[in-house]
Write a structure and sequence with these properties.
Blueprint (H helix, E strand, L loop, with lengths): L1 E10 L2 E11 L4 E5 L6 H8 L7 E6 L2 E2 L5 H6 L2 E3 L12 H6 L10 H6 L1 H21 L15 H13 L5 E5 L7 H18 L2 E5 L3 H7 L3 E5 L2 E6 L1 H5 L2 H8 L1 H20 L26
Parallel strand pairs: 3-8, 3-9, 6-7, 7-8
Antiparallel strand pairs: 1-2, 1-4, 4-5, 9-10
Helix pairs in contact: 6-7, 10-11
């Protein structure tokens, strides 16, 4: 659905995105991970039209959308959320949802004078649709609450709900788990999975929580220093030495490797076999089976 070809975004001499190329399959939930400063959010911003690329191309369904502004991409079904939720704080949760669909009759002065019946009919339909979204996301109990009073996790659910109020084809979620407690994070994960499986939404997700990524995403794309470093299933990505090095640094990786070798030599000298006993749950490189957990 999305193809990125040799994309660059420079800020003066700093190359935030430096020749990234990737594909996001239609109907997938693709994870995008990498250390801080890897260029993930900048890549999102370029794809979603928030930033213009320095060079390179972005295609959506074969159409060149490079540099199109966000409002045009919105009408094409490409939506992007941010790490910090952008709700209308003084409006109710339901009102936040109802105002999303574009082209409403009440937006023109003429219709407010002469099209009140049409406006009333649209508002009833929008209210019903908003209530359906709230039920789907299990937050109907806060429908009348001001959006500014919601918790961090509820605000992230509200952002998902706003995506559901239009015919989204692909949604880019930037650190959807930031500031969210574990219970609500799993609710968000379940909602994403249901939207993907039941309604055909395609997602690309930036997240540092590898348990969350592992639950949702296939494939997982890794960025480092503005480039794509690796791509594959979550389990293989977490065992990839280049990925481990990008997160932990060469020095720490070598330290962990040296400690693993020391333990192996100690075990052999005492008649133990590598990979047995307390080390049976470790990965083949001497690291825990989920070496990137808690990123």
């Amino acid at each position: 659905m999305i193809e990125v070809h040799d994309l660059h975004r420079h800020f003066g001499g700093f190359r935030a995105v430096d020749g990234a190329s990737l594909k996001i399959r239609k109907g997938s939930i693709t994870g995008l991970i990498g250390p801080n400063g890897a260029g993930k959010s900048t890549l999102f911003n370029v794809i979603a039209g928030v930033l213009a690329p320095t060079s390179g191309r972005v295609l959506m369904g074969g159409e060149d959308i490079t540099g199109l502004p966000p409002h045009q991409l919105f009408h094409k079904g490409l939506l992007r959320t941010f790490q910090m939720a952008h709700e209308f704080a003084s409006m109710s949760v339901r009102e936040n949802l109802m105002m999303v669909p574009p082209g409403q009759s009440g937006e023109t002065l003429w219709n407010t004078w002469f099209g009140r019946k049409r406006i009333a009919g649209e508002e009833r339909a929008l209210r019903a649709r908003a209530d359906e979204v709230l039920d789907f996301l299990t937050i109907s109990h806060v429908a009348e609450e001001k959006a500014g009073n919601l918790s961090g996790g509820q605000k992230k659910l509200l952002e998902l709900g706003r995506c559901m109020m239009v015919d989204a084809r692909i949604v880019f979620l930037d650190e959807v788990g930031a500031g969210v407690n574990r219970t609500l994070l799993m609710t968000i994960a379940d909602a994403i999975i249901r939207l993907n499986r039941e309604r055909g939404y395609t997602f690309c997700v930036i997240e540092h929580d590898m348990d969350f990524i592992g639950k949702l995403c296939d494939p997982v794309i890794v960025m480092a220093e503005g480039k794509v470093l690796a791509e594959g299933p979550a389990d293989s990505i977490m065992a990839n030495e280049a990925v481990i090095e990008a997160y932990l640094g060469r020095g720490l990786k070598n330290k962990v490797k040296a400690e693993a070798e020391e333990e192996t030599l100690f075990g052999e000298s005492h008649g133990f076999q590598p990979g047995m006993g307390d080390e049976a749950g470790a990965g083949g490189d001497g690291l825990p089976a989920r070496p990137l957990g808690g990123m």
